[in-house]
């Protein structure tokens, strides 16, 4: 059977699916890619114990068929093919079905053969989404960028479900906030999505959306057990994480109304220099008075001090010590030129960019 698929569309689909393929699969079947061709539509799919992902591409085919190919090999081959159509010819054996496929880029004297596996052995996962807890649409670019910002703040070594993954939190305005972190440092980004529940999704979602940063809305559906995202013919499912969501609102209510305005890049550079003089607990002293911020650290006979200009319209006075690693991490995640900084109480401080709440 002869099949023709546009190389660019197929390459995009395979690169998206590759994010869900285990680098070292325990079972060989977890690294298979299943092709299901029906009419002018080809469903390209991967499945393993934690995720199911699929993408649709247009196809010209002499008939309907399905086969499984080794994911890494076919992904690498298609990524290196020249632009144009990819011609695929199936090779069948009586009683075994499709045992291999031949690949040939259009207009080139090159031929490749890849062995296939029986499609009836492909993994089956129950993706019943008939009783959703949440269903909403959000800009794919917005979701991609915000997940990209909060996900590096996930403490991988933390075994507590809420802290080791991504939390979707219903804030005081009944809108969805994305939360990551633990009791030492937390990162929050707000959205305009109406959201009345709070839940935990697997941190690997950040990896799955890494290839999806184009314009347009994606649709997200969440049930008690499954998370589903659909975007322009690409879909992935993953399991929800069981665990209790902390009451972040108690923390959010502490965010001070008045903050000082700082040049983010200048503050980061100062922190990187002062940090060399910190003690074993990584703490530095921060003082705010008038239109200045003083950074100070000392250890043994070594000490460092820097004073930088700030905007302090409310004439706030702040004096406390904090872990410079967490402070630098928060500032690094902010993408704006300037940052707002304020002290909430003796236990917490807030940092947010000048144009968004975080």
Throw out a few tags for this protein:
alpha+beta, 16-stranded antiparallel β-sheet, four-stranded antiparallel β-sheet, 23 strands, 19% helix, 42% strand
Query: Approximately how much helix is present in the residues?
Result: 10-25%
Number of strands: 23
Low-pLDDT runs of 5+ residues are: none
Instruction: Give average pLDDT, whole number.
Output: 90
Task: Write a structural description.
With 358 residues, this protein is α+β, with helices and mostly antiparallel strands. It has eight helices and 23 strands. Helix 1 crosses helix 2 and helix 7 packs antiparallel against helix 8 (324-333). The protein is elongated.
Short description:
The protein has 358 residues and is of the alpha+beta class. The chain has eight helices and 23 strands.
What is the secondary structure topology, with strand pairs?
Elements: E1 2-6, H1 7-18, E2 32-38, E3 41-47, E4 51-61, E5 65-70, H2 71-80, E6 85-93, E7 97-105, E8 112-115, E9 134-139, H3 140-150, H4 161-164, E10 166-170, E11 175-181, E12 186-194, E13 199-201, H5 205-208, E14 217-222, E15 226-231, E16 234-241, H6 248-252, E17 260-263, H7 264-274, E18 283-289, E19 292-299, E20 302-309, E21 318-323, H8 324-333, E22 338-343, E23 349-353
Antiparallel strand pairs: 1-4, 1-6, 2-3, 2-5, 3-4, 4-16, 6-7, 7-8, 9-14, 10-11, 10-13, 11-12, 13-16, 14-15, 15-16, 17-22, 18-19, 18-21, 19-20, 22-23
């Amino acid at each position: 059977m002869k099949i023709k698929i546009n190389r660019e569309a197929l390459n995009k689909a395979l690169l998206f699916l590759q994010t869900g393929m285990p680098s070292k699969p325990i079972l060989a079947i977890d690294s298979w890619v299943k092709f299901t061709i029906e009419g002018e539509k080809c469903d390209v799919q991967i499945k393993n114990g934690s995720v199911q992902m699929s993408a649709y591409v247009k196809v010209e085919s002499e008939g309907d068929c399905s086969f499984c190919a080794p994911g890494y090999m076919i992904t690498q081959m298609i990524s290196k093919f020249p632009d144009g159509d990819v011609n695929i010819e199936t090779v069948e054996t009586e009683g075994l079905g499709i045992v291999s496929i031949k690949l040939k880029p259009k207009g080139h004297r090159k031929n490749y053969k890849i062995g296939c596996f029986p499609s009836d052995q492909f993994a089956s996962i129950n993706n019943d989404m008939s009783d959703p807890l949440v269903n909403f649409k959000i800009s794919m670019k917005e979701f991609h960028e915000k997940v990209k910002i909060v996900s590096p703040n996930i403490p991988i070594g933390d075994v507590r479900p809420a802290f080791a993954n991504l939390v979707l939190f219903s804030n005081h305005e009944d809108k969805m906030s994305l939360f990551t972190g633990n009791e030492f440092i937390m990162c929050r980004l707000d959205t305009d999505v109406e959201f009345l529940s709070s839940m935990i999704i697997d941190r690997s979602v950040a990896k799955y959306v890494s290839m999806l940063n184009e314009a347009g809305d994606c649709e997200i559906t969440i049930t008690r057990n499954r998370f589903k995202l659909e975007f322009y013919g690409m879909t992935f499912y993953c399991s929800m994480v069981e665990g209790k969501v902390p009451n972040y609102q108690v923390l959010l209510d502490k965010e001070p109304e008045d903050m000082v305005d700082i040049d983010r890049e200048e503050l980061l550079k100062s922190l990187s220099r002062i940090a060399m003089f910190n003690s074993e607990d990584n703490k530095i002293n921060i003082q705010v008075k008038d239109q200045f911020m003083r950074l100070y650290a000392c250890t043994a006979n070594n000490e460092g001090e820097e004073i930088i200009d700030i905007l302090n319209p409310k004439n706030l006075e702040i004096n406390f010590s904090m872990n410079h690693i967490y402070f630098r991490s928060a500032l690094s995640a902010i993408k704006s030129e300037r940052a707002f900084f304020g002290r909430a109480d003796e236990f917490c401080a807030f940092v947010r960019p000048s144009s968004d709440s975080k």
